[in-house]
Amino acid sequence: MTVIGLGAMGKALAGAFLDNGHPTTVWNRTAGKGRELAGRGATEAATAAEAIAASPVVVVCVLDYDAVREVLGAPVPVPAPAASGLTNPAEPGDVLDGSRTPGTPGTPDGSLTSDGPGAPGAVAGLLAGRTLVNLTNGTPRQARELARWASERGAGYLDGGIMAVPPMIGSPGSLVLCSGSPGAFAAHEGTLSALGTVDYLGEDAGRASLYDIALLSAMYGMFGGFLQAVAITGSERIPATEFTPLVVSWLNAMLTSLPAMAKAYDANDHSATASNLEMQATGFVNLLETGREQGVSTELLEPMGALLARGVAANRGDADLSALIDLLRTDPAQDTDLARDTDPGRGADFAEGSDPARATDAGSRDTGSHGAESHSAESRDTGLHGLGSHGAGSRDTGLHGLGSHDTGSHDLGSHGAESHGLGSHDARSHDARSHDLGSE
Ligand code: FVH
């Protein structure tokens, strides 16, 4: 194995390969970060090219895609102009150099056409016949572009989203979402499993990133809420350590409502609720008001307040929180071809217009093609292994976020199936006993 990038995550990845007996070569832009790994048996390469040449599998885990491109000598493509009407001085398909100024024209589809000027083409040339496993965080579009570029250079490509923090790597609780070349995955699944549980999401190189970004979006919602909560209580000098157990208990209770919300979304039936949107929008004003009264910024809360108000304005005041999901789609017509292929009903329905009221009309979607059953953990996709295999009953990533180094595993199922959040039916099972701060 070769691991390029020895930040906190790259070091953990290389360490896990070493722990599992895989000969490992490492390289990092700034020298010295491989010393400890060398002491554990890793070979330190002097250059990225030397590192790539050393192994059939090259794992890259650096800060972002700009860094990946710099290391590999891949150019930066110009994205197609956004449908929002924002102007872009460059033409779609232009290729930018590392400084992001318009460069030579590329292909109309925006693919990466030539090797970048910063890193030598010699580095990219070394990839032929190898598998590039890119575990750097990025967007689905970035992943697809890099996959195409790698394939044009004769390399297999796998993109990964690491749903773990560095101390978790190597444990079963560490989930690595992976997508891209099926052949490359079949050949290297065993090796990659040194990192934890590896979940292959299929041939579309962008799919792992899509899931990764979606999961991180959920995580940051939770963390943002926590920051707000502690700022509010902190404004009255309540120690965060005293209050936090109550937050954990409350969030765990609310988490149990997510499967019901998902079911409502898939069925496009948001009618079952004990906590309607109008009630929530009215109550939400108090969150904003309290922030102002207590001298706490409302910047994290305002977007949610606006969305609730938009839901009510779209005549969904009697609906469940799940009705708001469709309102978040700014350009439903941008569904990828892949999404349309697997879910023609949803794509066609969204494409008909962006009228929020219409889009959220109960029964207006083809529930036959994306009903609750078709999206269930086991049956959802076409032979791909979705997150369903890590379903609510078996795994809880909620407590394993970037803010926690807890390597244990937590089971959503243990919070009880009858527990329902504001997002679904009732809040009756939020266990009063867990409010006992002293016992937490
Ligand atoms: N750490 C985490 O909790 C998360 C967990 C989920 C996955 N993320 C993603 O993993 C990528 C790497 O994150 P990291 O934690 O290793 O990040 P750092 O410790 O900050 O190390 C950054 C490495 O990237 C190298 N690097 C930066 N720019 C360049 C460049 N232009 N050329 C070559 N290498 C570059 C940097 O090198 P150096 O500064 O030591 O020379 C580090 O090796 C990331 O995508 C997370 O989102 C981590």
Q: Can I get a quick summary?
A:
This protein is α/β, with parallel strands linked by helices and 440 residues long. It is built from 16 helices and ten strands. It has helices at residues 8-19, 35-39, 48-53, 65-72, 121-125, 140-152, 182-192, 207-234, 240-255, 258-267, 277-294, 302-313, 337-342, 344-351, 356-359, 367-370, and strands at 2-4, 25-27, 43-44, 57-60, 76-77, 95-96, 131-134, 156-163, 175-180, 197-200.
How would the blueprint of this fold be written?
Elements: E1 2-4, H1 8-19, E2 25-27, H2 35-39, E3 43-44, H3 48-53, E4 57-60, H4 65-72, E5 76-77, E6 95-96, H5 121-125, E7 131-134, H6 140-152, E8 156-163, E9 175-180, H7 182-192, E10 197-200, H8 207-234, H9 240-255, H10 258-267, H11 277-294, H12 302-313, H13 337-342, H14 344-351, H15 356-359, H16 367-370
Parallel strand pairs: 1-2, 1-4, 2-3, 4-7, 7-8, 9-10
Antiparallel strand pairs: 5-6, 8-9
Helix pairs in contact: 8-9, 11-12
Ligand FVH is lined by residues 5-10, 28-30, 33, 61-64, 67, 70-71, 136-137, 162, 165-166, 402.
